[in-house]
Task: inverse folding
């Protein structure tokens, strides 16, 4: 009996697609704010008022007794980005517990693509900086993907990327964030103090105990989270690692014992609903404002920066390394699993998506500061390299994806069509789809049942 070959980028379930679509709309707005913050900083740093920008960025605030007398730029990198990584940790755990990543077959592609999209840029950067004086320390800079920036680019070029590709891009970026925070913790911890690191386990454990009991009082949780952040910061490990650890303690699903006859959503959804707007609307744009302000020094200064092997490695890593790494990993998955691309897609779509993966901004700038020191000459070259590589990747992605927009529009129209008016697009109910991809309408899915419960259960209200 003939079997249907597995499909890469096959359409998922309607509940997952609708959740991802809502999440990406919020990330797109955040990406626009991120670009605005970076542009304001870049323009300000290249005007006669540049000393005012530098003075603001270098203003020191905070209690020295706790070793928290930090500049505003450092507060943005260590403090505000902790909010960003907390949300990323929540989303990562949600994907592995209740999303597509819980299925190893579905997780294989984005995980492989994320690994390839980090390994190849790192190798490209290392090859270019092999003989560079202290340049190798920045090998991880071109490995990051900025999902908010990438979605903002998609909004600017107005392309109707299919739901499967958008879901893949988000999932790849989530796994990318996990790998990035692991790299930061392992390779960019210059000195380690075990006493505060062990002490951090106390407030972390208390925080985890309370959220498992569905305690959501901010006056209990915020002090514990801050104490964990302070102690991890004091240990020498980058403080954003604390945010990911805190996020991993938050339950995604509520146990049947706590929620009645059937499981419902845990606190992860509640926290993400509350904190994501702060991350996308405040934390990341403010970090971009304090990190992207590099004085170019005219054409000569720009040329000097771009001829530095560090900047060259970043640009080539982001533009070429990411495209080769993500596309190559996808091809290898296809080759070894004998899976075929979904019938609506072609390999140029994968290449365009891989180029979008080369838009590395937020985490790339953070790693650059950790590698070379904030405000150092090499850090300034890092900023130029990241901005240039991100811009080139965005332009090339637009050049590949935009001509396919008419085809994408037809897919989007098919994915939105609901002739029977049951609230689930017809394409998600077609018998030709795989069993895991079809919705059993009009029965409620788990996510839809959870949504209904939240409308009626006061304990689940935001």
Result:
């Amino acid at each position: 009996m003939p079997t249907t070959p597995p499909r890469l980028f096959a359409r998922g379930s309607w509940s997952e697609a609708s959740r991802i679509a809502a999440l990406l709309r919020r990330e797109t707005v955040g990406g626009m704010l991120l670009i605005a913050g970076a542009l304001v900083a870049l323009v300000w740093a290249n005007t006669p008022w540049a000393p005012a920008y530098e003075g603001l960025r270098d203003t020191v605030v905070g209690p020295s007794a706790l070793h928290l007398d930090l500049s505003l730029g450092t507060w943005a990198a260590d403090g505000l980005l902790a909010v960003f990584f907390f949300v990323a940790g929540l989303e990562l755990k949600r994907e592995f517990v209740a999303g597509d990543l819980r299925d190893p077959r579905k997780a294989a592609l984005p995980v492989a693509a994320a690994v390839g999209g980090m390994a190849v840029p790192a190798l490209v950067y290392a090859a270019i900086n092999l003989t560079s004086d202290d340049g190798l320390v920045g090998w991880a800079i071109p490995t990051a993907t900025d999902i908010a920036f990438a979605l903002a680019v998609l909004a600017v070029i107005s392309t109707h990327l299919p739901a499967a590709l958008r879901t893949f891009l988000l999932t790849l970026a989530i796994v990318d964030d996990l790998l990035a925070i692991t790299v930061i913790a392992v390779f960019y911890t210059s000195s380690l103090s075990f006493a505060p690191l062990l002490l951090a386990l106390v407030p972390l454990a208390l925080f985890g105990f309370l959220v498992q009991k569905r305690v959501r009082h901010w006056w209990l949780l915020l002090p514990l989270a801050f104490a964990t952040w302070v102690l991890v910061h004091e240990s020498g490990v980058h403080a954003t690692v604390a945010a990911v650890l805190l996020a991993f303690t938050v339950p995604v699903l509520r146990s049947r014992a706590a929620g009645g006859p059937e499981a419902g959503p845990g606190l992860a959804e509640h926290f993400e609903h509350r904190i994501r707007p702060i991350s996308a609307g405040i934390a990341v744009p403010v970090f971009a404002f304090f990190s992207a302000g590099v004085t170019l020094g005219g054409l000569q200064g720009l040329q000097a920066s771009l001829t530095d092997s560090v900047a060259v490695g970043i640009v080539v890593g982001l533009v070429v390394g990411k495209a080769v790494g993500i596309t190559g990993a996808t091809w290898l998955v296809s080759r070894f699993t004998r899976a075929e691309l979904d019938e609506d897609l072609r390999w140029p779509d994968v290449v365009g998506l891989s180029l979008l993966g080369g838009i590395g901004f937020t985490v790339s700038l953070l790693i650059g500061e950790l590698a070379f020191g904030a405000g150092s000459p090499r850090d300034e070259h890092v900023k130029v390299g990241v901005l240039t590589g991100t811009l080139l990747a965005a332009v090339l992605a637009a050049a590949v994806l935009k001509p396919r927009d008419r085809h994408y529009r037809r897919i989007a129209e098919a994915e939105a069509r609901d002739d029977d008016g049951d609230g689930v697009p017809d394409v998600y109910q077609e018998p030709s789809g795989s069993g895991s991809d079809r919705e059993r309408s009009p029965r409620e899915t788990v996510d839809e049942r959870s949504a209904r419960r939240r409308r009626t259960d006061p304990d689940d209200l935001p």
Notes: Confidence is low (pLDDT under 50) at residues 258-262, 432-462. The longest strand covers residues 7-8.
